[in-house]
Design a protein that fits this description.
Hemopexin; 489 residues; disordered N terminus; alpha+beta; 5-stranded mixed β-sheet; binds zinc ion; single chain; elongated; 10 helices; Collagenase (Catalytic Domain); 5-stranded antiparallel β-sheet; 2 domains; binds ligand TQJ; 24 strands; binds calcium ion
């Protein structure tokens, strides 16, 4: 975690020259030196003292033992890619005046990455909002800032509505419970904690700043959020002015928020390639040809990173996972997993299963393939397959993608692309008012559902390689994990 020091120089400016409190003056930093050279010297001395280890005695005079003022100016100019003149020219003063990070630039000079998250699905949630923008604007700017990193890194961000999310986003002022109080307008704009438990990943924005959606006066939330999420993912400041991780805020929003360097840095942290000669091989993700042993044609790799299921259902005292014509069976009490072609276990079934659900009080499972379904009691498949229209679907419904029986309500839900139906198992009729929109009734579940599974008041939605845990009481997603973790991978 980084340590923030208060921007003393900024206070000096405010105390000594009330004229400079005009925000635009300080921020945009006008490229002319201040009319008050003594003030520039004070600013520079404080700045170099804080960030470049310039040694001064308590009266502010330079220590004889310390490196010279000029060499510190040169260090600072080198860091920011300025002409290394050693003189306090206007470019140099401009950088010193802009809002910046409290962390010294001279430590970790070349190290741009810190710790990383050891998972690739991260959750985030938004706590307190800013008064400056509509809620939906904040939601979408935060989502966009994360999307920028998701694209470059392959990480997935899932929004939750609980405070326990990995990345908790909040707009706060002054002291807010983490030993790094904000400082009112200007100075520090935001901060983020690197990957880790508890406060790790948490991202705070100073609500004494004016936050904008781009344009106008104030700070562009998208850009600052992109910078902060870089920290939340483990990146440190960069010395390239084009980088989103540069230590000072920029006014203009570039078309690509991330520079090539930012992409390279986040990939170095999360792409998981085995690099030749690397002493710490990580999980292979991007090198298909060396990623895992070839499986016998009839065996499937249950630990494949992109494992998806067609259907998941309880059947007796086991959970059945269907994928193509293949089946994994996980017994509730046993740790081993049985697997093989579906027909090894259910000789009548030679096809894939699109959706499946279990009705405990009938001890029956229903396996749906296309427009037909089988009823399974015990381990016996009852009779011939029946038509899906039995449930009262309109004729145009020739298949469903997922189905789940919710014991609590006695309803079976059938999912198809972005809509779903609700079937009343007691009265044996479709509920009135269906189909309805999945994303409206199951906020957070925004892609095609591959499979759904009910357990203890939660529906688990399998979407591609991810499982979203949906709380039926709270009516939102409360957790996310990988599909393969269900098969003990
Ligand atoms: N700042 S900041 C945020 C730097 C400094 O001035 O608020 C936005 C540049 C803080 N930013 C220091 N910082 C950029 C926090 C936050 O670096 C830059 N925004 C120290 O990230 C480029 C957009 C800290 C762009 N860290 N304190 Br594009 C952790 C407590 C905990
Ligand atoms: Ca501030
Ligand atoms: Zn904070
Ligand atoms: Zn920063």
């Amino acid at each position: 975690m980084q340590v923030m020091l208060l921007p003393v120089w900024f206070r000096v400016l405010l105390l000594l020259d009330p004229g400079l409190t005009a925000p635009a003056l300080v921020l945009e930093g006008g490229s002319t030196p201040s009319p008050e050279p003594q003030l520039d010297l004070q600013l520079a001395t404080d700045y170099l003292h804080q960030y470049y280890n310039l040694q001064t005695d308590p009266s502010g005079r330079m220590r004889r033992s310390g490196l010279s003022f000029t060499s510190k100016v040169k260090d600072m100019q080198a860091f920011f890619g300025l002409n290394e003149t050693g003189v306090l020219d206007s470019d140099t003063l401009e950088v010193m005046r802009s809002p910046r990070c409290g962390v010294p630039d001279v430590e970790d000079f070349s190290q741009v990455q810190g710790t990383r998250w050891n998972k690739n699905i991260l959750s985030y949630s938004i706590g307190r909002y800013t008064r400056d923008l509509p809620l939906s604007t904040v939601d979408s700017l935060i989502q966009s800032a994360l999307a920028v990193w998701a694209r470059a890194s392959g990480l997935t961000f899932v929004r939750l509505h609980t405070s326990s999310a990995d990345i908790r986003v909040e707009f706060v002022t002054n002291a807010h419970g983490d030993f790094y109080p904000f400082d009112g307008p200007r100075g520090t704009l935001a901060h983020a904690f690197g990957p880790g438990l508890g406060a790790g990943g948490d991202t705070h924005f100073d609500d004494d700043e004016r936050w904008t959606a781009g344009g106008g006066s104030g700070f562009d939330l998208l850009m600052v959020a992109a910078h902060e999420f870089g920290h939340a993912l483990g990146l440190k400041h960069s010395r390239s002015p084009g980088s989103v991780m540069y230590p000072t805020y920029k006014m203009s929003r570039p078309s690509n928020l991330l520079s090539r360097e930012d992409e390279a840095n986040i990939q170095a942290l999360y792409s998981n390639q085995i690099l030749p000669g690397s002493t710490c091989p990580q999980i292979v993700r991007n090198v298909p040809w060396m990623s895992r042993p070839l499986f016998p044609r009839l065996m499937q790799d249950r630990c494949a990173p992109d494992l998806t299921f067609d259907a998941v259902s309880t059947l007796g005292d086991a959970t059945f996972f269907f994928r193509d014509r293949y089946l994994w069976i996980k017994h509730n009490e046993q740790s081993d997993i049985k697997e093989g072609p579906i027909s090894n276990f259910m000789p009548k079934i030679e096809t894939r299963i699109d959706a499946a659900f279990w009705i405990p009080r009938r001890s029956a499972a229903y396996l749906i393939h296309g427009s037909t379904f089988w009823t399974v009691r015990g381990s016996v498949i009852k009779g011939k397959p029946k038509a899906l229209s039995f449930f009262g679907f309109p004729a145009w419904v020739q298949s469903v993608e997922a189905a789940v029986h919710v014991v609590r309500t006695g309803r079976t839900l059938f999912f198809m692309q972005h809509i779903y139906w609700s079937y009343n198992e007691n009265r044996k009729v479709m509920d009135f008012g269906f189909p309805r929109s999945i994303s409206e009734d199951f906020p957070g579940v925004n892609a095609t559902i591959n499979a759904a599974f009910y357990k203890e008041k939660f529906i688990y939605f399998f979407l591609g390689p991810h499982v979203y845990k949906f709380d039926l009481t709270l009516k939102h997603v409360v957790g996310v994990e990988s599909s393969r973790s269900w098969l003990s991978c």
